[in-house]
């Protein structure tokens, strides 16, 4: 899964964005079919069932559409467990009617089943080069991080700061090593790339310090995510993968359900959440590349390559 997530090449090794458009479309359908077959396999279904039996609470993520931000893969969590909300730049506002409805329906359904909801609100950046950060925020990590704290505040305004049922937490994602960076409720920060992959005994105490107001059961459910990410980081550090990502997206995806499409540089994914979809969906001028200075639309921002 990791290879297909990161590769920008088709099965025969050709760089996808260099192929004729008909071949790219064929590749896209084959990729979707592979993902679907894998997701429906008995092995995958059993893995999901077992995970949910052991970890019944709900986990959602709010994240940028950037293909590198693949929380299930980087936490070694079976596909289908973590419910993603993806949008250009990871921009969300709970006042958007459709987004508010979807989240409220999910939280109420989960609560009615006697389960809690953990919401990971993410921003992403690269520690090696700011230009590998989030194009949706014009590579301004501080702005991206500030936005996630605003989403957290909105979640708390809607679902309470008591955190006994819904716990929204801010989480950075460093894309060079696929490392989660946890922001604690008191302002502390825990970069998982700094932790040893061999000593997991201290993790419960670390999480208790970061999130003293989090229900114990929910902290227990964070442990496999944290352990999985630490193991994944160790694998990434051993690998020699390409880090430079140029924005060469050639398709626009609108709506939900694109969790199978996590390959960098291929697609601009626009969630159905903003009430002003005309802005991000509109086609940039064909004759010239748009500039970020003249327009604040997320689509335009993403069209600005390094
Ligand atoms: Zn981004």
List keywords for this structure.
306 residues; alpha/beta; Beta-carbonic Anhydrase, Chain A; 6-stranded mixed β-sheet; two-stranded parallel sheet; 10 helices; 8 strands; 39% helix; disordered C terminus; binds zinc ion
Describe the structure in brief.
By secondary structure, this protein is α/β, with parallel strands linked by helices.
Largest sheet: 6 strands, mixed
Here the CATH topology of the domain at 57-238 equals Beta-carbonic Anhydrase, Chain A
- The tally of strands reads 8
Distance between the first and last residues' Cα: 28 Å
Strand order of the largest sheet: 2-1-3-4-5-6
Tell me the name of the CATH class of the domain at 57-238: Alpha Beta
* Overall pLDDT level: 85
- Strand residue content: 15-25%
The succession of helices and strands, N to C, reads HHHEHEHEHEEEHHEEHH
């Amino acid at each position: 899964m990791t290879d297909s997530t990161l590769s920008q090449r088709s099965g025969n090794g050709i760089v996808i964005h260099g192929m004729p458009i008909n071949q790219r479309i064929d590749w896209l359908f084959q990729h979707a079919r592979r993902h679907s077959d894998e997701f429906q396999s008995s092995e995958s279904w059993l893995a999901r069932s077992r995970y949910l039996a052991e970890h019944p609470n709900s986990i959602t993520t709010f994240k940028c559409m950037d293909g590198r931000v693949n929380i299930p893969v980087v936490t070694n969590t079976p596909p289908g467990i973590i419910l993603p909300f993806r949008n250009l730049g990871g921009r969300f506002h709970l006042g958007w009617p459709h987004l508010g409805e979807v989240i409220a329906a999910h939280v109420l359904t989960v609560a009615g089943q006697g389960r809690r909801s953990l919401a990971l609100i993410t921003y992403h950046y690269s520690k090696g080069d700011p230009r590998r950060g989030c194009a949706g925020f014009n590579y301004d990590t501080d702005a991206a991080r500030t936005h996630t704290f605003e989403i957290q505040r909105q979640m708390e305004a809607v679902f309470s700061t008591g955190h006994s049922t819904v716990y929204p937490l801010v989480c950075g994602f460093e894309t060079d090593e696929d490392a989660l960076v946890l922001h604690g409720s008191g302002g502390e920060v825990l970069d998982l790339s700094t932790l040893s992959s061999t000593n997991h005994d201290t993790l419960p105490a670390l999480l208790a310090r970061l999130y003293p107001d989090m229900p114990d059961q929910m902290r227990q459910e964070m442990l496999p995510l944290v352990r999985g990410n630490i193991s994944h980081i160790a694998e990434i550090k051993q690998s020699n993968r390409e880090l430079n990502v140029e924005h060469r997206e050639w398709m626009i995806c609108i709506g939900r359900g694109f969790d199978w499409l996590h390959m960098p540089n291929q697609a601009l994914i626009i969630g159905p959440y903003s009430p002003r979809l005309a802005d991000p969906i509109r086609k940039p001028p064909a004759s010239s590349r748009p500039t970020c200075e003249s327009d604040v639309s997320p689509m335009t921002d993403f069209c600005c390559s390094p």
